[in-house]
Design goal:
Helix content is about 40%, strand content about 15%. It is α+β, with helices and mostly antiparallel strands and about 425 residues long. The strands form five sheets. Strands 2, 3, 4, 5 and 8 form a five-stranded mixed beta sheet that branches. A three-stranded antiparallel beta sheet has the order 1-6-7, with no helix packed on it. A hairpin with a 6-residue loop joins strand 2 (about 60) and strand 3. Mean pLDDT is about 85; it is low at about 415-430. Bound molecules: zinc ion.
Length: about 425
């Protein structure tokens, strides 16, 4: 009796445990199917296929004539290996040849060739002369698998330093990092293609399953308003002027078509060679090298602010003429006594030691006589003056299609005191 009972009890327990196990398994299967399914499918696909990206050719950048090439992509090649496809007895030989041919460290290359991974990059963007030598070597040594030579593109700037701060440059993956290259990256970059290869679980090629080639889509070309000839002239004379006048901060020249607003030249000095943007001045201390590099890349003509100085007298003169406060050629309309009193502050003319005396508006402009324009500014009044600044578009950005531009900087109207406003807007450095 006792024995039979215990058998039945044992059977009951066994059935109970089996059912429990089955439920657990069902739950686990459900979990894998429903929750982890997508992830696992992706993993399996990645294991069974080894994709190599084929970079698209970036669009060409032309100057305003549409003929002078400012940036172009040339065809180069990238070498990758599928370590599992290289025979063990060939590995050292392959590493030796690759390191010799592309001037790479032998141990690093050997490590990659021996790695248990589906794909390793050996060298990017090398000229065809070199990869052709590799092709010959592979043929001579009867190595047919495991080493891929794929088409890639490399950015080249035929005019080196010309318009460097406008054009900008690209990174190692052909992505625009600066200037126009960054701003129009979406148009220029195109769409990368790929070479897919279906492999078995160990990474080996499945017979009758050739590589699938998805052609890359080349990027769009871009035509700038910059005229290479005008740009070259602007750069030449800007450099001369900076050197002759010892301008340690460098300088900028912008040449615009006044009718359309087109930028014909935008020169900055010092500049840099677009084909070697990461070149550093070795004589500088390490920590200053990067700062110096960044400053060379910066397009100061659009990213830095600068007091307009006497050029702003034109704005004041235009507003005063429009308001009927003054006329262009009335002899002796103004008298410069070397200074003007504004809210108790004596503001000097630059020629305070020998005042300009009586003068017309045209003469005052020719003399760059500060008191005349401070006086006109006062007559126009702060409220009207700001209205004109707004009408001239000074409170808006210029709309130039370059990254990192700065805004016009001026005191808010409510904060402006006469002496402050006039001092900064009109009477700034000459
Ligand atoms: Zn004066």
């Amino acid at each position: 009796m006792i024995g039979r009972l215990s058998v039945r009890k044992r059977m009951k327990n066994t059935i109970f445990l089996s059912v429990l196990l089955m439920i657990t398994l069902l739950v686990r299967i459900g979990y894998i199917q429903l929750i982890e399914g997508d992830e696992l499918r992706e993993k399996a696909y990645a294991q069974q296929t080894s994709d190599r990206a084929v970079n698209a050719k970036r669009g060409t950048i032309y100057d305003a004539t549409g003929k002078t090439v400012l940036a172009v992509s040339s065809t180069v090649e990238t070498v990758t290996v599928n370590p599992t496809h290289i025979k063990d007895e060939d590995k050292e030989k392959v590493a030796q040849e690759l390191s010799l041919l592309f001037e790479l460290d032998y141990d690093t290359v050997l490590k990659k060739v021996k790695k248990r991974s589906s794909i390793e990059t050996i060298v990017k963007k090398v000229d065809k002369d070199k990869t052709n030598l590799l092709r010959e070597w592979l043929e001579q040594n009867n190595i047919t698998e495991g080493i891929n030579i794929d088409e890639d593109s490399k950015r080249y700037y035929p005019l080196n330093n010309l318009a460097s701060q406008v054009i900008g440059f690209c990174g190692s993956d052909n992505q625009g990092l600066n200037g126009i290259e960054a701003k129009y990256d979406d148009y220029l970059k195109g769409k990368a293609g790929s070479i897919s290869k279906v492999t078995d679980a160990s990474g080996g090629t499945i017979e009758d399953n050739p590589e699938e080639y998805n052609e890359p889509q080349d990027g769009d070309d871009l035509v700038l308003t910059i005229d290479a000839s005008i740009q070259a002239i602007a750069e030449k004379y800007l450099k001369e002027a900076c050197i002759d006048n010892v301008c340690t901060d460098g300088g900028n020249v912008i040449i615009m078509n006044p009718k359309t607003g087109d930028i014909l030249a935008l020169a900055g000095y010092p500049d840099y060679n677009l084909n070697d943007p990461f070149a550093v001045d070795e004589s500088l201390p390490k920590e200053e090298q990067s700062t110096k590099m960044q400053s060379l890349w910066r397009n100061k003509a659009i990213s830095d602010t600068y007091e307009p100085g006497s050029t702003f007298k034109l704005v004041t003169a235009s507003a005063a003429l429009e308001e009927g406060i003054t006329t262009t050629d009335k002899a002796g309309e103004f008298t410069c006594i070397g200074y003007i009193d504004v809210a108790g502050v004596k503001m000097k003319c630059w020629r305070y030691y020998r005042p300009h005396g009586p003068e017309s508006l045209r003469q005052a402009l020719m003399n760059s006589c500060n008191p005349v324009f401070i006086g006109l500014g006062e007559k126009i009044g702060v409220h009207k003056y700001y209205e004109y600044l707004n009408k001239f578009g000074f409170f808006r950005t210029t709309g130039i299609d370059l990254p990192r531009r700065s805004k016009f900087n001026i005191f808010k109207r409510r904060k402006s005191r006469p002496s402050r406003t006039w001092h900064n807007c009109i009477w700034a450095k000459i």
